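Quick one from the shared queue. A colleague (R.T.) flagged Glycine dehydrogenase (decarboxylating) as missing a structural entry in our internal table.

Convert sequence to structure tokens.
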Amino acid sequence: MTSFADRHIGTTAQAQRRMLEELGIADDEAPVEALMRQAVPAAIFTSASDGDSRIPRAASEAEALSELRGFAARNTVNTSMIGLGYYGTITPSVIQRNVLENPSWYTAYTPYQPEISQGRLEALINFQTMVADLTGLSTANASMLDESTAVAEGMLLARRASKTKSDVFVVDAGAFPQTKALLETRAAALGIELVERDLAAGETLPDELFGVFVQYPAASGLVWDPSAVIDAAHVAGGLAVVAADLLALTLIASPGSLGADVAVGTTQRFGVPMAFGGPHAGYMAVRAGLERQLPGRLVGVSVDADGKPAYRLSLQTREQHIRREKATSNICTAQVLLAVMASMYAVYHGPDGLREIAQSVAGKAATLAAWMREAGAVVTNDAFFDTLEVRAADAADIVARAHDESGILLRLVDDRTVSISVDETTTDADLNAVAALFGGKTSAFGARGVERAGDETKPAERADADALPQELRRSDEFLTHPVFHVHRSETAMMRYLKGLADRDYALDRGMIPLGSCTMKLNAATEMAAITWPEFAQIHPFAPESDVAGYLEMIDQLEGWLAEVTGYDAVSLQPNAGSQGELAGLLAIRGYHRANGDEGRTVCLIPSSAHGTNAASAVLAGMKVVVVACDDLGNVDLDDLRAKIAAHADEIAALMITYPSTHGVYEQDVVEITSAVHAAGGQVYVDGANLNALLGYARFGDLGGDVSHLNLHKTFAIPHGGGGPGVGPVAAKEHLAAHLPSHPLAQRDAHAGGYTFSGGVVSAAPYGSAGILPISWSYVRMMGAEGLRDATAAAVLSANYIAARLGEHFPVLYTGENGRVAHECILDLRPLKESTGITVDDVAKRLIDYGFHAPTMSFPVPGTLMVEPTESEDLGEIDRFVEAMIMIAQEADDVAAGRWPADDNPLVNAPHTAVSLIAGEWDHAYTREDAAYPVRSLVSTKYWPPVRRIDQAYGDRNLVCACPPVEAFA
């Protein structure tokens, strides 16, 4: 019977033998193992597992789903009225089926090649327009990781943009508790002084500050006018950051209209399930003049070679891989898939539909408040949108009875206060059940909405109005662009989503050989459980008794990840690789400070490292010292020793990527890590390239003290067009206590019995827990042996490509035995010198051949970094190799004069269908040369919707919202 690993790994045993022959390896017994012994240094090489693994034998797909059903059965889907930024929402089925469950959307990558990403870029423009309109600010980015991290980024933006020298940032007492905790973590590392004020109660601001943060509405539910506070902050020279509920903003005044400089928040309640904390798309919007301070990604409008409008990422110099220690943020991704869902929720409902949902929510809250007051309860706020705080002497008992008797989750604020939040899923029966807990009259409906036989009493009448203050009523229009008005029927919505998907290139079309990004198979069985209600409809702060299945699955996954990496403890809280990096560095910082070594602030980072490494070190309060690399791409040991000697007692950490960013296994890695340890430093091993190591070596064994792992790379979580990702942090025992904690976590203990007490790095205790079933399924179905086989297959495919293309494009770096790891860097600089054809030309010409280009000019300008992964079969790999060889021949034809340097298929690539049929064909090459360079494309051709995009034009003419329909005429 075929195993899951056989279906995940694209190359068959027969194909692998052919590939190994190309490499000159013919070991009859274990040829793949022979290749791995050539590539991986003997000092760190691990032989096959001897059977004592904590990872059980590989399960079949049916068995894995059955075990997930078991976890799901141990979760209880109660009615959540907890709030705090997480609410029940109804995902339109047309969006769930055609976006969330559609590989055309979830297997795409970040739109670095915009010509083949027009669909998701348009969806993100819709997202940015939606956020900008609702917040009343000029520009929004393409999403953030969650609300709390967005607030932290807003704080950092305020510090950069403020002209004051103050280190004081004022935090509203009405902020969500998880946000306060995260701000404390981020501020402490950067020397920012947080000052809490009850702003709604009129407490005054300090004389000096660089910013103020307001929650709007407050965690208590209070809706109040913060404009005076915002004005006072401006007088003091600071900026105002407002966290606003987007649904409430359909009814109440926008932050922009109140004078805010920055608005942040979450779009979760726009059709994205709570999923035990994520993934969800946070948002950030800024007033005019702050656009270039925005962290994260920004989608803009430019023009293509024909002058037609086209979307692309704007201001890409802000990408953190490029800016390194000068980065404004370490975030280099977004939550694209979830942002698409939220934007389509707005497209589906339109402004009138959103307003109707908001009015319904506000009316339910007002109704409940009226019933409470009729029962004699004290509702603390007169003005509110969806949340009430109610005084009760027996508050804890009420919360317990709500859960045990009615299946309703309320929030215990303190021993005399209960918080209740309603949402679009709240029923009259829910309202009645809650009112009854406070002594109100029961109705004809029980807590589950089932009419009681023989009971003729009627439900209390619903309130006619909401409880929003008249002076804060929103009067301006929003979502006026036609896209939010024309897709009203499901037919229209389905066709719109299909049309956008057809403009994109994702893994469902072909290989995406992006180096460093690991675009491997995201199997359907791995994806199946994420939409089950028992995983999707759980509040992140639900009581421990409701989430036993989640916690058991999390424990297992933490344990498995600890084993395969050689560490002792794992935290799944970081919801992106950037947050995992930061969490690991903060753990190192906490460890040194606990030992009294507060002077250890220097972080050594090789020049070849991921750009996010330097940015993360700065955000952790460390000083970056760059270590040189030699001509082979390895860390220069002499320079490392010199830097260690120069900084002696200041060394906090070394950050190193293994295998290196250059795609090779450094032979001296143990010597490198030993030198840092001898100097009293800790070693951070970046886990981005774990796909080349799993089963053959472990970070902990080669000297690592802490690492982040990219579950969206090595462990099969889809990239979703540029997010979601999960970046858990794993550490040795001595650092375990400093891993992330959370004030609202269901429990303190983690796998292995470790208790974490480090700072909060994500809004939810387990980060993007809703997609952890994907990685759990991957490990469970692969087993230890399958994981090892996947590594070998990935390394074999990369070496095969390097061998076949080496004579056409020099392979820039190899290890001592001439082998690469799971990716190889093809040097196109000689091609440019001899033919004039650039790396851009090659990347765009690959689109005509039906491929997504490899990673361009990273880590070396003028190169392509190719990573085939283990999931591609030999036919697809050979198709890519042959395309690259033909492109090299085309470049030679340009050099030989067959085609002019300014008019050939490469410099004019990519070619759209319109460009081939419109008008006279006056090029030096034929239409067939342009469109069908290989005959197989006749039946499988992918047509890009736009020609080559002018990047510079888009930066000079910054447009980051939906352009008018006339622009496309």
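The CA atoms of residues 57 and 783 lie 5 Å apart.
The domain at 529-770 is CATH 3.40.640.10 (Aspartate Aminotransferase; domain 2).
Added to the table.
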